Amino acid sequence: MPDPEHNTSEGLLEPLLAAALPELYRANAFRILGLPVDATERSIKRQAERVQLMEKFGGAGALRTVGPLPLNPEPGLDDIREAIHRLNSPERRLFDEVFWFWPAQTGGDSADDPALAALAKHDLKTATRIWYARAESDEHGLATHNVAVLYHAAALDLEYIPEVKPLSVNLRKLQSAYWVEAFARWRMVLKDERFWRRLESRIGELNDPRLTPETATQLRKTLPLLLLLINAHLALRAVGEGDNEEAERQKQLMRGSGFDEATIEGALRRASEQVIERVTIMCVASEPEAGADPSRAGEVTRRLLEGAGGLIKEVENLLPGDGLADELRDEVALCALNCIITFGQEPGTWRSALELLERARPFAVSSGVCERMDDLRAHLLRFAYQPERAKATGLETV
Question: How far is it, in rounded angstroms, from Cα 397 to Cα 279?
């Protein structure tokens, strides 16, 4: 990751990539608060004061004003408090602005924008008709950007519904159409110099040293990865739930996005990082735990193999043929081997240790790890069936 001290703009991208989640729009501060992207510090402060009153007297509903695509269910007090906090951070505010609707007139009253007024009533057809008509003559490229946001947010809203109830066949078809349009419009935004000049101008208006014109350049370069990461996370979530059909659907959406294969693979690998980290944490914690109480080292090994095995399968299903899963398997195999050595040094545990090794052996992939596993197996076989040798020899030599 680039060093933020050497390149502030690039350093800002890491937390933005971390925010590229399926909840992108449901967590958008402007959507939660019903505020326009050009909301003033005064209006944000007014919302903060209302939060204090609501904390005192209860009830979050009074905080919301009517804005585009109102959330259902309505956000709670914690959501509103977090949204206000986001808007007090220039980097997070800019991110939420990029992924929300901009009024047609710079410096005008967003409440007078007919497309945004239509969205507040959930009238998507009227809003898109207005933006389609404006697209060519729009000096800032905002109409195309707003259509991209609309289709993207609508697609992700439909991804959220199955958490509550299954989608109908018609909604599934609509969802697919939204995804196709969303990616097509975002590709147009990427090529539209008008929008990126406007974003640079907006950065100047925010007037914060942490944001520079280079921030807009880096956002533009990273946008394909940001977009694809959302589908990658949805695919990973499906794999974790054992729904490989849904995971494949998400990967098909990524392949049909129009973005290059390297970016697609990069998004899938990055989404897998959270699973990889969980496996690594298991390994890092297992050896000290086994060493602290060798009599429980067998139990520690079993827990490691069971937990890590399922996680590695997730990575394998998400990235078939990629080397990540094999690297993880070797990491777990080595950790298990060391735990088994610790366990095998306890009196009378050699046969149990051998059984554990047989369970761990399929994890080993590389020749070096396989050889170490086979060496330990040979030692354990001698110890298990030659007790007198076991008394005179330890496992430290493996």
Answer: 27
Q: What is the pLDDT of residue 50?
A: 77
How far is residue 73's CA from residue 33's CA, in Å, rounded to a whole number? 13
Name, in order, each residue with C-beta under 8 angstroms of 229's C-beta and a sequence gap of 6 or more: 17, 20, 21, 267, 270, 271
- Pair 320, 248: CB distance under 8 Å: no
Comparing CA positions, the residue from 174, 178, 125, 123 lying closest to residue 149 is 178
> Contact, 86 vs 92, CB < 8 A?
yes
What confidence tens digit (pLDDT) does each residue in 33-66 have?
Answer: 888 998 888 888 887 787 777 766 665 555 555 6
DSSP 296: G
Average pLDDT of the chain? 87
pLDDT in tens, 244-269: 999 999 999 999 999 999 999 999 99
Distance CA 118, CA 132 (A): 14
Whether the pLDDT of residue 6 is over 50: the answer is: no
CA–CA distance, 326 with 63 (Å, rounded to integer): 51
Under 8 Å between Cβ of 229 and 17: yes
Pick 74 or 397 by higher pLDDT.
74
Q: How far is CA 177 from the centre of its chain?
A: 23
For 137, 382, 383, the CA distances from 387, given in Å and listed in that order, are 88, 8, 6
DSSP characters over 247-287: HHHHHHHHHTTS--HHHHHHHHHHHHHHHHHHHHHHHHHHH
Phi, psi of 47 (to 5 degrees): -65, -40
Closest to 230 (Cα-Cα) out of 382, 99, 332, 35: 99
User: Which pair of tokens denotes residue 205?
Assistant: 């208006």
